[in-house]
Amino acid sequence: MAFGRRSILIAAAALGSGRARAAAIAPERFLWMQNAAGEEVAVAFRAGEEYIPAAIARLRHLLRDVHAGVEGPMPPLLLDMLSVLQEGWDYSRPIIVRSGYRTPLSNAAIEGAARRSLHLHGQAVDMAVPGISADELGTRAAGLARRLGFMGVGAYPSFVHLDIGPQRVWTR
Ligand SMILES: [Zn+2]
Question: I need a surface site. Which of 3, 86, 89, 147 has the fewest CB within 10 A?
Fold first, then answer.
């Protein structure tokens, strides 16, 4: 949390090869999130190249379909993307998850939801960040998508949809 990406890369260059170097390049990653049920998790979920199973399990539970009470798949790549985005505010603001994983039944009940939504695969999150407008959040997410070459970003009036599918940006 105390290291920026630049200082991590400089530290990595100063190290020898092997695990220490890999760990320095892939730093510890954090997430601070709240869900629609009012639950909150703030946790380090990755140390170097290793994901931390207990932390992943807590985040999977947080991102479950809260209406159906069902946990979905939780691709760690989605957590990495959210963490990189949250790093933009130095982890000073939580991510408010409006919708994470959705069962087919829950998804069908949402007006306007895509029938083949990536929420059905646990690959998408609808989110907001307190004190940050959906516009700004969408702009930041779209910037990250350009850097990475993938990620779907949908800007809605009060939240931003983010997924780890192919790169595309839309506004509603
Ligand atoms: Zn969505």
Answer: 147
Please tell me the distance between residue 126's alpha carbon and the centre of ligand 1 in angstroms. Answer: 5
Q: What pTM did the predictor assign? A: 0.83
- Residue range 99-106: mean pLDDT, rounded: 96
Residue 2 has a pLDDT of: 38
pLDDT at 27: 72
Q: From ligand 1's centre to the CA of 144, what distance in Å?
A: 17
* Residue 15 CA, ligand 1 centroid: distance in Å: 41
Average pLDDT score over residue span 121-146: 96
Give me the mean pLDDT over the 124-149 stretch: 95
**Burial of 121: CB neighbours in 10 Å, binned 0-12, 13-18, 19+:** middle
- Please report, for the chain, the start and end positions of each structural domain, with discontinuous segments joined by +: 30-171
Top CATH class of 30-171 equals: alpha beta
Distance of CA 17 from the midpoint of ligand 1 (Å): 41
- What are 158's two structure tokens? 């009060």
For the beta carbon of residue 102, count every other beta carbon within 10 angstroms.
27
Give 152's strand partners: 163, 168
